[in-house]
Fold this protein.
Amino acid sequence: MAILEVKDLEVYYGIIKAIKGISFEVNEGEVIALIGANGAGKTTILHTITGLLSPKKGQVIFEGTDITKVPAHKIVGLGMAHVPEGRRVFANLSVYQNLKLGAYTRKDKEEIESTLEMIYKRFPRLEERKNQLAGTLSGGEQQMLAMGRALMSHPKIILMDEPSMGLSPILVNEIFDIIRSVNETGTTVLLVEQNAKKALAIANRAYVLETGRIVTSGDAKELMNDDTIKKAYLGE
Amino acid sequence: MALITSILEQLLNGLRIGSVYALIALGYTMVYGIAKMINFAHGDIIMVGAYALYVYVSLLKLPPVLAVILTIITCSVIGITIEKVAYKPLRKAQPLAVLITAIGVSYLLQNLSLLIFKATPIPFGSIIKVPSVKLAGLNISGLTIVTLVVTVAVMVGLTLFINRTRMGHAMLAVSEDKGAAELMGINVNRTISVTFAIGSALAAVAGILYISQYETLLPTLGALPGIKAFVAAVLGGIGSIPGAMFGGIILGIIESMSKAYISTQLSDAIVFSVLVVVLLVKPSGILGKLKAEKV
Ligand SMILES: Nc1ncnc2c1ncn2[C@@H]1O[C@H](COP(=O)(O)OP(=O)(O)O)[C@@H](O)[C@H]1O
Ligand SMILES: [Mg+2]
């Protein structure tokens, strides 16, 4: 069953049409990769899904309900978390305060505590640094914090915008392992990446985006062996 | 001995007027931190508070405590309304447009007050009736005691509110990154409204303390303390709450010392010179953090 559906989406910045009619769907339990070069429109799509931008046309449907007009701050409470591009952790707040803000819409204190423990188990470095200001963390640690903060809302689906950006190869592997394990524990993942190789390796299906349009889509393993994809995105 | 007593007296004077500046500066700095704008109408909320108190006490003959509470509520409601009507539609506009609007709101408030209460100064005796205290040869006025106690209580309360409550945490998040705050489920519009409400409530308290000292109502009475408190906020580091408290107190002390020992006429010039020197040495203010502007 589709947990998230995007239908005929068109998004503008002023008079510039950044997204030119896009449709795709994410089924429950999947890892879906949205790949494309810089400027293809990946971030714009995620921002439109979580309400930070409004589309000119089209719909965003979450668990069968149209959420196109739902304001951004009401999205996370529905069960959809967004790890934004560039991490955007709250630099002047501690790691712990950042994580607590991730659970802002949740009420049950005990459940929040147990999620926090689970996140500390997944990211031991965050526990070691829980009283440190987020702005003083390394890039990899900030990415972990941004992911941990999103997971604090206990989402059904998590949207991640270029989690590997600017990280060393070792850290990139670590981050992708974490994404895989987050998915294995039952969270659906919509992953936006320029690192197509890595993204296709953990995705079930993928959509390829070029200047605001989906040009190819299909099974991730098949796309990995597709000659045009290899040439354009995998550097082979 | 006489000199020491005199210095201590001036120090107390400075603390009293500095407390009022600090209360006003908190409003500037909180609104700047959250909404990234200088609310130039903030000083006029002090005036609104002073007139509101006069209406409740002298015209409606309400008991002082009730009048104070109603004054605070009145200013908060006006603060929220100004934000909703004048500033919210400009949330994505250029800073210059917002600044000009704020100056416009400031004139609007002054002229409304002129229209309702006329230009003739209205005498209005202090509602603070606390006896003065003699301590080691020092005469401490009741108003000074009340001002200091109220200011300390407000500062402690505000610090606890920001660091301990859900709304306080939301304010911290919004001040750093509105988009990321929304993704956490924080209602940014509501957070901004609450910030204006708190800033205006503090201005109301400052207005009550200020008018209790000067005992004369004028439509422009908020302008001078407003601009000085703005200087205090910049001095302490705009956006920083401890900075506003510190900046206000320091400014009050410098002002009262200059008046007593250098020159009454030059005291304002000295205050502004201190600002210039501090900004030359540390452009972000005493407790401010220098941040690269986000692109
Ligand atoms: N705030 C903005 N204002 C105007 N144009 C923008 C803005 N953000 C992105 N764009 C444009 O929209 C297109 C898609 O951008 P984006 O969604 O950021 O791409 P991606 O995330 O795939 O790199 C690009 O052409 C970009 O220049
Ligand atoms: Mg992007």
Observations:
- Chain A has a mean pLDDT of 95.
- The two ends of chain A are 35 Å apart (CA to CA).
- Residues 34 and 46 of chain A are 10 Å apart (CA to CA).
- Chain A touches chain B at residues 50-52, 71-77, 81-82, 84, 88-93, 97, 100-102, 104-105, 149-150, 153 (CB under 8 Å).
